[in-house]
Every structure is written in structure tokens, then in C-alpha cells.
Amino acid sequence: xxxxxxxxxxxxxxxxxxxxxxxxDSLRLIQLSGVVVSSDSLEQMPYATIFDKTVxxxxxxxxxxFFSVVVEPGDTILFRYYGHRESSFIVPDSLSDDRxxxxxxxxxxxxxxxxxEVTVYPWPSRADFARAFVEMEPYDDxxxxxxxxxxxxxxxxxxxxxxxxxxxxxxxxQNQQNTKLYTMGQSPVNNLMNPFAWASFLQAWRSGQLSxx
Length: 213
Description:
By secondary structure, this protein is of the alpha+beta class. Helix content is 38%, strand content 19%. It has a 4-stranded antiparallel sheet with strand order 3-2-5-6, with no helix packed on it.
């Protein structure tokens, strides 16, 4: 009886081992990388869509048209980009390396030429556009707004409202410590006897920088 049980357990273990080895051999992953370019100008196509139709998984290319996705041999990869025809690429099943690079070219869709041009405005009607046109301030553009918000008075007002955080407190404490170390073993620096400080004071006084507004 014991021999019979041992024989059955051995057969089960060998069967599980064979299944695990077979599944491990069949699952082969490949790092597919490449660049999506246009066929007429060879320019990179930013943010193109790359979709693995076989496993229903995809990614998006970066600004330079570069992409990288994990695939299996035989997977069908779809490439989509606005104004271009959808194209596909089948991962070869005869690859010996686990990395594969391609340069995928996409062709423009000729049917897009017959679509009418659509201009989108931020106003829902002509009356709203007329009201916005009358009420707008043409001289208060983005550059002038930036100059006004980055002026000394605005920055000083914002700084007075913002409390010191940990980094500012730490920097202040470090400056105090460095000042103590600089004058260690001697008298602290006294600007009343500093001729350069007096020269700066007299120059500012003569130029009117110290006058009250």
C-alpha cells in the first residue's frame, strides 16, 4: 500500500514539474522599443498611441516619438496618430534576443483632406464675443501682468504674509553659527568703525536714497 501511494505521489510531482517547465518555456517576453515617424518628412510623431491588440495593453510615445513596451512573439501592435492611417506591426517569433528595436513609419490619411475645418472659440455666441471684446483691456496683457506681480512691492507683500519654513529657519540658524565661528576669540565686527560702511552710507545719503517718501 505504501509503495502504491509513493508511486502515485511521484507521478503527480513529475506531472506538475512538466507543466511548470512547459509554461515557463512558452512565456517569452521581449522589450520592444522604437520611434514612430512620419513617412513623408521622417519627423517624430509625439504622443502616438501604441496598442498591443493581442493582450489588450498599450502605451503612449513621448514627445520625441519614442516608446517602449513589453510584448510576446507573435503579438500584433497597432499604431495610431491623428491625421495618419492606422498601421500594425507583428512581433517576429524568430527573435533570439529579449530586446528588439524598430523605426515605425506612418502614412497620412488622404480622407482627412475632405473634412471641413473647424475653429473653436471660447465664446458660446456672437453676443458673448461682442461683450468680451468691448470689456477687454488691450493694454493689460500677460507681460504687463507678470511685471506687476513680480514687482518689488508685490514680492515684499507676499514675503510678509508667508511665514518661515524649516529650510529658512535652518539657514538663519546656520548663518548665526557661522558668524559666531568667524569672530570666535576676538571682538565682534562693529560697522561703526568700518570705513567702507560709512562710505556707502554717505553715498546713499547724498543720492537721496535715505530721504523719506
